[in-house]
């Protein structure tokens, strides 16, 4: 199973909005609602930001939103803040209780 | 508060074996599927294995099937990963996570580093 495709980097200034894409196929992102997003700061464990495409766990700021169109899922950060600078990973169910991650996107707040 | 604490990492020679443990607390361990996810130095996340709450179903990524075995002891609230025939490319931080593919990983441990080198 191939990794999902994410841009290696993204950036924005404080207060701006930025969107990170996660492209798969109809056998993963487009075929199941089990798409998740994780945030990882350097040297730290990942943190769940979204599950089932757009559902936000408690504690995740509503500046963050998740969506999907066809085989591409997206994570959007509105009103960028310095603490949003981190690596972001998407993941998708691919059947038979298997899962694949995206390659990750490094978000820089300028 | 959910806590997941991994242990057992270290330096091992190619072809060697290692068993990782993950001690869980703050939730009813047997009610939840658990997983291992790894991250090679400077690289992205990679799903390794998952196990059902009762331990009766296990799943492994293709590249690790046959070499890695996930298991759990619900009486000890502990998750395990037995790793055999280790290769240099298995060098990574191994994270224990609560959940599996259809529930997402909503809690993670701090990770334990496995280094495979002669």
Structure characterization notes:
The complex is a heterodimer of chains A (110) and B (118). Chain A contains no helices and nine strands. Chain A has 110 residues and is mainly beta. The mean pLDDT of chain A is 96. In chain A, the strands form two sheets. In chain A, strands 1, 3, 4, 7, 8 and 9 form a six-stranded mixed β-sheet that branches. A three-stranded antiparallel β-sheet of chain A has the order 2-6-5, with no helix packed on it. Chain B is 0% helix and 49% strand. The mean pLDDT of chain B is 96. Classes of the chains: A mainly beta (110), B mainly beta (118). The A-B interface holds A 1, 3, 34, 36, 38, 40, 45-48, 51-52, 57, 89, 91, 93-94, 96-104 and B 37, 44-47, 50, 57, 59, 61-62, 95, 100-111.
Class based on secondary structure composition and strand pairing of chain B: mainly beta
Query: Mean of residue pLDDT of chain A?
Result: 96
Please bin the fraction of helical residues of chain B: under 10%
Gross geometry of chain A: globular
Largest interface: A-B, 26 and 23 residues
Q: Which spans of chain B have pLDDT < 50 for at least 5 consecutive residues?
A: none
Number of strands of chain A: 9
- Main sheet makeup of chain A: 6 strands, mixed
Radius of gyration of chain B: 13 Å
- Ends of chain B: how far apart? 40 Å
Question: Any low-confidence stretches of chain A, pLDDT <50, length ≥5?
Answer: none
Number of DSSP helical runs of chain B: 0
Give the structure's gist in a few sentences:
Chain A contains no helices and 9 strands. Chain A has 110 residues and is mainly beta. In chain A, strands 1, 3, 4, 7, 8 and 9 form a 6-stranded mixed β-sheet that branches.
